[in-house]
Amino acid sequence: IGAAKLVVVVAIFLLTFYVISQVFEIKMDANLGHIFARSALDAAARSTKPPRYKCGISKACPEKHFAFKMASGAANVVGPKICVEDNVLMSGVKNNVGRGINVALVNGKTGESLDTKFFDMWGGDVAPFIEFLKSIQDGTIVLMGTYDDGATKLNEEARKLIGELGSTYITNLGFRDNWVFCGGKGIKTKSPFEQHIKNNKDTNKYEGWPEVVEMEGCIPQKQD
């Protein structure tokens, strides 16, 4: 009788073990299936994710054009940002921006950065800015963005020199207006790349300052 009971116990144990192992394997298969399904979905999501273009612009630039994106400062808190060909030339993170007009110069043939400077047009002197503008070489791409106030110290000569770079709105740039501009030395026409928002207490986004202005586009490469 004892031997018979032992056989029954062993049989039950083996049966139980078999059932548990079958269930475990099924669960394992289900988990593996879930993992593979998720991998497939992730791969599909990656393949349908929209491509990223240089400087994060909305579409790719044609051949022989340089991609750019820029933004003015936000009030007197966040500095402007200028990016060309996926290179951030000026930003608060790079710690090379300041109150006034921020300027980045780019080689019109290669798209390489030549210089970055900012000129305080509230508490500074316009004379160094004028000398800088006069020193820009023909064929240079010029990108400008305001931060805090970019107009108080601007005089007629400085505005005229910026106008010769292709700016339309520089004559109307006023106290704490937000403005971004991309032009060039030796340009024969007015630049299509310019945005301007007036400082107006009735429409300002921030107390005392208008909203940030942003702009992106494709600058034609200078041809010989």
From TrEMBL:
One of its GO terms (molecular function) is carbohydrate binding. It is found in: Secreted. One of its GO terms (cellular component) is extracellular region. Residues 99-186 form the ILEI/PANDER domain. InterPro entries: FAM3, ILEI/PANDER_dom, ILEI_FAM3C. The keyword Signal applies. Its main location: secreted. Keywords: Disulfide bond, Lectin, Secreted, Signal. It comes from the Eukaryota. It holds the Pfam family ILEI. Belongs to the FAM3 family. This is FAM3C protein. The gene is Fam3c.
